[in-house]
Amino acid sequence: MLVVAVVLSFSPAVGAGSGYRFYQVQGRPSEPIRWNPCTPITYRINTNGLAGPASVQRVRRAIGEAARASGIRFRYLGSTRAVPDVRGRAVSRAAGADLVITWAYRGVGERRSALLPRVARLAAVGGYDTERSARGFRVARSGFVVFDAARIFRMSARKQYLVALHELGHVLGLDDVRDRRQVMNSVVLDRGPAHYGAGDRAGLRRLGRRAGCLVPAPAPQRPTAAQVGNRVEIVTPAVTSLSGKVTYTLSSPELGGPVATSSTPRFSVSLARLAQLGYIAAPVRFQVSASNRVGDAVSQVAVYRVPPAVLASEPSVVVTPNSFEIVEPRAVLAGTTVDVSIWLSASLDGYLDAHQSNGGQFRTDLSRSILVYGRPVVSFDVLGSIRYQGPGLDRTFDLAGSYLTGAELDPLPDPTPTPDPTPDPTPDPEPTPDPTPTPEHVIPAE
């Protein structure tokens, strides 16, 4: 709770300050703790049998100046019997207003307030309580101003008006400064300003309407939850935030609290996750919350009932130069039957045929065939499909196609040509002449 007092002085203050200061800041980058300037500050006045109509009108004029300087509207709700004390927030609730203004004496009891400390020359105290959101953001709430009746009525009407301006500055979030040109100077001067100074007004602008609204993000509409392919899509319309960007969070008690965070109100949850957690033919609840820097709000619950049989993903074919695999869905919920009928042709140096009838395993001697041929598989040509059936489920996936493995098939070597006959280096010998000549003509003897 912020409680700030104003001390009286009858001589000018010495020194100058920055023009304005905030009493409390928060966040990174820091910003002052302030009221929501887009909502009127309601207030009630308790004369407590001590203040007259002139004092009430003086305070209401000061409220009008604070409203003009800050851009925040104030709404007068009438009188009250509540007297702010150390339980300022409780008094504000009892009075039914955001701000309670009264005159009282120090102490406890009738016409007294424990907020007035025993400090000499103290004229009044003013301040506020804060309310913290779930995100830790604090907003000013439950303001109060208590004038010390033993001292305030000894002051001139001009100084009473300045004290009211000063305390309302504290209510809105300004701190004291050492600058005699400002109403928020820590002492009231005989010849000081009659109205908020330039520094006061600059600080009030940063606390007021120009700084923007401080409103938690509104609650999103109840989301829709429906199956899209192999996932559950949870969608709700975007909300409009008056206090910065919105972050959406999907939560589910069945999934263990927060599930995902996004800048858009669109989420999806895989059916595989629901299957792995055992939610078969069972309801799963989803909610979407919207939050900004001020606070958050959550939607109503959407219920998605998981079917008794559903595919969590689609089957696919994965090939390598020495393997062929059908990757089946990661999760097939209970009650589902699988019928597989695949013809496989592997392109080696020739063909390798295999037939799969069930269970996801090919009965083939693929590796031995690869060893026999000594070459990798270049592609697998598939003709066939997989059918999944169950309660409310009948889906067939055609896996036909040619699946390349990425291997390259080296060309066969050219056949070796037949060499020409090698000539005999030794020549055939010449014929040997007969030493006995063959007679050409024989003359008989006489």
From TrEMBL:
<dbReference type="GO" id="GO:0031012">
    <property type="term" value="C:extracellular matrix"/>
</dbReference>
<dbReference type="InterPro" id="IPR001818">
    <property type="entry name" value="Pept_M10_metallopeptidase"/>
</dbReference>
<keyword id="KW-0645">Protease</keyword>
<dbReference type="GO" id="GO:0006508">
    <property type="term" value="P:proteolysis"/>
</dbReference>
<dbReference type="InterPro" id="IPR024079">
    <property type="entry name" value="MetalloPept_cat_dom_sf"/>
</dbReference>
<dbReference type="Pfam" id="PF00413">
    <property type="entry name" value="Peptidase_M10"/>
</dbReference>
<feature type="domain" description="Peptidase M10 metallopeptidase">
    <location>
        <begin position="140"/>
        <end position="189"/>
    </location>
</feature>
<keyword id="KW-0378">Hydrolase</keyword>
<keyword id="KW-0862">Zinc</keyword>
<dbReference type="GO" id="GO:0004222">
    <property type="term" value="F:metalloendopeptidase activity"/>
</dbReference>
<feature type="compositionally biased region" description="Pro residues">
    <location>
        <begin position="412"/>
        <end position="438"/>
    </location>
</feature>
<dbReference type="GO" id="GO:0008270">
    <property type="term" value="F:zinc ion binding"/>
</dbReference>
<protein>
    <recommendedName>
        <fullName>Peptidase M10 metallopeptidase domain-containing protein</fullName>
    </recommendedName>
</protein>
<keyword id="KW-0479">Metal-binding</keyword>
<feature type="region of interest" description="Disordered">
    <location>
        <begin position="405"/>
        <end position="446"/>
    </location>
</feature>
